[in-house]
Write a structure and sequence with these properties.
This protein is α/β, with parallel strands linked by helices. The protein is built from 6 helices and 9 strands. The chain has a single domain, classed as Flavodoxin domain (Rossmann fold). Helix 4 links the parallel strand 6 and strand 7. Bound molecules: flavin mononucleotide. Flavin mononucleotide binds next to helix 1, helix 2, helix 3 and strand 7.
Length: about 240
């Protein structure tokens, strides 16, 4: 009974937040990307400068992402949780991850779960709310081969309920990225990163977590190539 009440309150709050976001999106916001050159959070990280410009050394790069393409509702042009590119349909964060891969020459890693997420929008919303209320840790179906060999981890995910999707909690608990640089990126319906970068820094206190990752509204994902190119160049991580 209590759980049901909490769920209703959370749903109402999230609906309000998304409605607010929707009005931002229709208010002429064209791009919400932010770039920087290496300001970090996490007091114990190797580059823990607490802001400013710390060059990122790059080294071996992994691009890990979580993405759930929706199969119903809006088309692939605008406001969709999927993108059509090169004859393939994929989730928004997968598309951004592939652009980052092209720019940096890093290796792609899809964060996948044993359970399958519903493909339709309303079912996915319900499922994700319940997972969040349960503080679930969905079991991961994919593992990084030799995680210690990477120096820089781009970490991409959708904003879900103003938070990380629960599989990201599993991922960040499963791996220790101490001494590495984590560069977050997200796609969203208007909320940007919410508090997720601080959450990543809290969960990986000995990593250098870049404060101002790349945040792209789902309305702009299909046209994000230029933003991604500029961001990667700004980080000094473009492949030669
Ligand atoms: C379960 C769920 C919860 C969401 N919650 C939010 C939210 O709180 N704020 C927001 O801006 N967008 C929210 N969105 C929108 C997604 O962040 C956005 O569609 C994103 O681009 C999806 O990325 P993907 O295709 O890689 O999964 C939510 C979407 C889903 C499916």
């Amino acid at each position: 009974m209590k759980k049901r009440k909490a769920a209703l309150i959370l749903c109402a709050a999230a609906a309000l937040s998304l409605a607010a976001c929707g009005s931002q999106e229709t208010g002429g916001q064209t791009s919400s990307s932010q770039t920087q050159t290496g300001g970090t959070v996490g007091t114990d990280g190797p580059d823990a400068a607490g802001g400013g410009s710390t060059p990122i050394s790059g080294g071996r790069i992994l691009i890990a992402y979580f993405s759930v393409p929706e199969t119903d509702g809006v088309d692939t042009e605008a406001s969709a949780s999927r993108v059509s590119a090169d004859g393939e349909v994929m989730g928004n964060n997968e598309y951004i991850a592939r652009l980052i891969q092209q720019e940096t020459g890093g290796e792609l890693f899809a964060i996948e779960t044993v359970q399958e997420y519903p493909g339709t929008h309303d079912d996915l919303l319900d499922f994700a709310y319940n997972e969040m209320l349960d503080d679930a840790r969905p079991e991961l179906a994919s593992q990084i081969e030799d995680p210690g060999s990477y120096d820089t981890i781009f970490l991409g995910y959708p904003n879900w309920n103003s938070d990380l999707p629960m599989p990201l909690y599993t991922f960040l608990e499963e791996y220790d990225f101490s001494g590495k640089t984590i560069i977050p990126f997200t796609t969203h319906g208007g909320s940007g990163f919410s508090r997720t970068i601080q959450t990543i820094a809290d969960m990986q206190p000995d990593a250098a977590v870049v404060e101002d990752g790349l945040s792209i509204s789902r309305n702009d994902v299909a046209d994000a190539q230029g933003d991604v190119t500029d961001w990667i160049a700004g980080l000094g991580l473009a492949a030669e």
